[in-house]
Amino acid sequence: MNGRPVPAPTPSPEKALLAPLRAGALLGILVVLWTFVMGFTGWYRNPSLLFLFWLVIPLQIGVLLVMLRTTAPTTGYLRQVQNGVGASFVASAIIFVGSLLFTMVVFPSYFAELEALGRLRMAQQGFTAEQIEAVVKAQAPMQKPLGSAFAGVLGTWITGLFTSLIAAAWYRRK
Questions:
Q1: What DSSP string describes the chain?
Q2: pLDDT in tens, 73-131
Q3: Interatomic CA distance for residues 4 and 126, integer angstroms
Q4: What is the pLDDT of residue 98?
Q5: What is the mean pLDDT of residues 60-66?
C-alpha cells in the first residue's frame, strides 16, 4: 500500500526441518512402493523390463527438485544442500527396510531368479560356462539382501548429494 515491498515470510525452524523430513518420507515410500510394483507384476523377471527398477533415480531427483525449489526463497545454498541430503538420508532408511522386506520376506527367491535369468542371458550371448561362473561369483556379494539394501542406500545418498549440489546452485541463481 505504501509502495514498500512486503518481505517474504521467514519459515520457523520447525517448518524448515519438516520439508526434508516430509520429502524424505515421501521419497522412501514411493521407492518402496515402486519396488513392490516391480515385484508383484513380475517385471523384475523380464529382462526387457528390468531397467524399470532404475526409474527410482528420476523419481528421487524429481522429489528433491520440488522440495528444493519450494525452500529456495528462504534458505541459502548450504542449507539447501543439507535439506536435499537430509531428505535422502530419511528416504534411505525407509528404502533399506523396504529392500530387506522385499528380498527376505515377500520375494525370498528374488536373487535366485535374477541369477538364473543372468545365466540364461549370458549363455544366449555366447559366454562360456567358465565366464558365466566368474560373473556370477563377482556379483555374489550384491546378490544378498543386505548387500542389495546397502547398495540402495548408497545410491540414494549419492544421487541426493549430487542432485542437491546442482539444484541448490541452480535455484540460487534465479
A1: --SPPPPPPPPPHHHHHHHHHHHHHHHHHHHHHHHHHHHHHTGGGSTTTGGGGGGHHHHHHHHHHHHHHHHGGGS-HHHHHHHHHHHHHHHHHHHHHHHHIIIIII-TTHHHHHHHHHHHHHHHTT--HHHHHHHHHHHGGGSSHHHHHHHHHHHHHHHHHHHHHHHHHHHHH-
A2: 889 999 999 999 999 999 999 999 999 999 999 999 999 999 999 999 999 999 999 99
A3: 74
A4: 98
A5: 97
Place of cell 542437491: 164
Give backbone dihedrals phi and psi of 162, rounded to 5 degrees, phi first: -65, -40
pTM of the model: 0.85
- At residue 174, the pLDDT reads 57
pLDDT score at 2: 60
Query: What cell numbers appear for 60 in the block?
Result: 528421487
How many other β-carbons are positioned within 10 Å of the β-carbon of residue 24? 28
* C-alpha pair distances (Å), 64 with each of 21, 86, 100, 113, 118: 11, 10, 24, 33, 33
**Closest listed residue to residue 92, CA positions, set 8, 17, 23:** 23
Residues comprising the chain, all counted: 174
Looking from the CA of 5 toward its CB, the CA atoms found within 13 Å total 3
